[in-house]
Amino acid sequence: MSQIRHALSVKRSDDFAAWYQAVIAEADMAEESGVRGCMVIKPWGYGIWERIQRLMDDRIKAAGVQNCYFPIFIPLKNFEREASHVEGFAKEMAVVTHHRLIADGKGGLMPDPEAKLEEPLVVRPTSETIIGDAMARWIQSWRDLPLLTNQWANVVRWEMRTRMFLRTSEFLWQEGHTAHENAEDARRETQRALEMYRACAEEDLAISVVTGEKPENERFPGAVETWSIEAMMQDGKALQAGTSHYLGTNFAEAAGIQFQDREGAQQFCHTTSWGVSTRLIGGVIMTHGDDDGLRVPPAIAPQQVVILPMLRGSDEDGALLDYCEKLRAGIAAQIALGEKVRVLLDMSHGKAAAKRWDWVRKGVPVIIEIGGRDMDNGVVSLLRRDRLWNDAAKPDFAALSVEQAVGEIGSLLEEIQTGLFNEARTRRDANITRGITSMGEVAAHYAGDARFPGWLEVQWSKPSGDELEQVVDALKAHKLTIRNVPRDSAPADGTCVFTGKPAVERILIARAY
Amino acid sequence: MSQIRHALSVKRSDDFAAWYQAVIAEADMAEESGVRGCMVIKPWGYGIWERIQRLMDDRIKAAGVQNCYFPIFIPLKNFEREASHVEGFAKEMAVVTHHRLIADGKGGLMPDPEAKLEEPLVVRPTSETIIGDAMARWIQSWRDLPLLTNQWANVVRWEMRTRMFLRTSEFLWQEGHTAHENAEDARRETQRALEMYRACAEEDLAISVVTGEKPENERFPGAVETWSIEAMMQDGKALQAGTSHYLGTNFAEAAGIQFQDREGAQQFCHTTSWGVSTRLIGGVIMTHGDDDGLRVPPAIAPQQVVILPMLRGSDEDGALLDYCEKLRAGIAAQIALGEKVRVLLDMSHGKAAAKRWDWVRKGVPVIIEIGGRDMDNGVVSLLRRDRLWNDAAKPDFAALSVEQAVGEIGSLLEEIQTGLFNEARTRRDANITRGITSMGEVAAHYAGDARFPGWLEVQWSKPSGDELEQVVDALKAHKLTIRNVPRDSAPADGTCVFTGKPAVERILIARAY
To answer: Which chain B residue has the Cα nearest residue A113?
Structure first.
């Protein structure tokens, strides 16, 4: 029996972490920059981010949220105002202390001691405190509410151990910030953003997620409630892929965001914030990648179809290119997932076979190869990235007429999008274990060499304070964390796996990124 | 005769600088953030930037340039490598020296002395040096060339005197960076980017510009040639609205960007860089604004048409809103300037008249007001922002049938776009004075109380070094600068206005932002 010769040198089953780095390198998505904790996002990785941005931005705008831009620098005093917030972030921020360089007398440069800032500035790790200042200026009356803002920006959190896309010192994200008249409105917005993230993850990124509330110990610093979407990676670990926070009046009180209510009284606003980041790209890799590289869901693929002409350096090449260009134009006029199909005729240097495997590793959803003989026969060879190999361990090319290729491309791309999502959802559902009732069983589940232990859904009594800390520590001993309280899980009907008390709700437990 | 009651309290002719600030405030585009030199860009201002981004990004991608993202932090050593570059920027950069805050023992926070960086990091003022590092990794052979990259990013230059949009410590921009096999290719790319900026300024922003090369003293630090587009503001001053640099092999030698050429020899690449920023928005304001606020060219207007229902808080309001919604949907289905028309049905709080003037100050190209009587008669009242007042000093509303309003909106918006450009070009052309042959005449032209002295096109001998410095100083005494050597000006045929030597080319002289 033939053996498939995969396009990557590392398999997921051999070393998942090494495989992850290999996909990023081989799909040419990003690389280390040489600047501590910062990555360079290369065209294919950035193209995927641009697609995610475009689709998420459409969803944000459709909700009536308006984009703004706020300063990258935040004065220290803003952090001093909100104690629990600074507690959560103070340990990992980049601090600007000088505004000029001078020669150091040794042929190099140094910060100019004469140009020391009176008050150091922090490079934003998140913008609640600076946007709070603006909201305090912008809001006078209930008529100004709700105030719905968002910004696309870079943020910096000084991370000691970094991993590309998943945890970098600088990353790109959007952060929504809203202010409301009361808790009910703010909680509704928190849920709206959460649902928007679920829809984007599932419909655009084809990643199946569980939405739910984070436990008290995992709350955003200063938040009253933190909600998340959690995705299962192919190694069974969880990835927190987006968060939405109800902040109560904590940040409003710190920044003085007040309004005159309908009865004429002064009140503090209830605020929310919510964000997703370039971390989503890590989620795409670990959800859809395989041993041949990345597979990009068509909705977020910078190119959905690549046409590779088999050029021979001969006189026929001109006619072949004309033939390919006609096909390209025909495909570009088609609609898939509500947009014009993104198709590239790849005329770059290099042999067609090498270029094919480059595109396989990049995970473009559909590759179409056309040689001189194909042209003469009026056919094309089409390869689906989601079903790469045939039973003979060869690339599973299908021969189609040009009319078929053009006519079916829209539904094919939609089928691939749905297929990737179904595959992710099926794997997720198959790897959530229920019915475990003791910490001993929890430990046993994650012991041994079960390679993909997945997640556990267990019941708990929702302990708080010190009692919760004990639970967190007990889980930590097995490298486990509580992911969230799934919004749509069944009511509790048993006892707490940790405390033995009557359970009040179900939670997800997992190893996590 | 009636007197027009303008929507702004300050007129351009009274105090242009105060008028500029008033437009930004009254059109609700941006505001001071409280963080030194940084502004908050509000939804209307940011929406204009998003439109400029979208149109420019389409032009960038159409040229085969690929977007990437590079680190915000640049190590000091990168600046130390390129002497003339650091010379140009060293004086005004934000320097990160610590990566953690701790309690200062007085209830506040301070940089943690234990967390001092071994090597300070600079917040990028521009990214030639860090992108050069990446290019050195990415380029091996002539087959890798040209390498065409761009990033959309924030940059920081510590400015002592700031003015919103025109000069802020943090600003948003795109920076293109390309590497080529030889000087010819790199110079061609420099000109391509310059031409792209001209087209975007003229076709999208409706700003008439002069393209040309900057004199030696105005070159980008480290560049061999710097080219610019220069726009004339309504006070006659020049605004450098975009630059494109041919960098020779200077940055390639500093960063080691080498390639094996077609003959197998190692060579340094020739590189270019080019950028435009949020400064363009300042140019839009000072080109198209009038005494009633901003006028946004339709191509870059976040909303091109606003429909204002004259609600009365009565039972009829429901029918009126239905009527307006049908009109909105009809207009939204129309095409103007190659895109679907952007139309908003404004149902926000507030009286219709107040809302009208808000939209006038924001400069939305077309306002449509509809009251109950209009509905009964099947008509709408349409106001063009570019021709606001009638002879009786009243807003010049036109009564149109619904069918007319829908059917003509596309061509109306295109007419407004063209009209704004022609107005700007006519004003620009009328305010360039030629034929001046001595420095005395130059001084006389800018002396006195001529409010809009505009620009001079004079001939010069293209002095260099010390001789050029003398010219620069002589001009500086009159607050004048050399803007550029227009690409399309007539050949020189006289003597140099500064040196009396035979002239070799023509240059533009102006006061500038």
So the answer is: B95
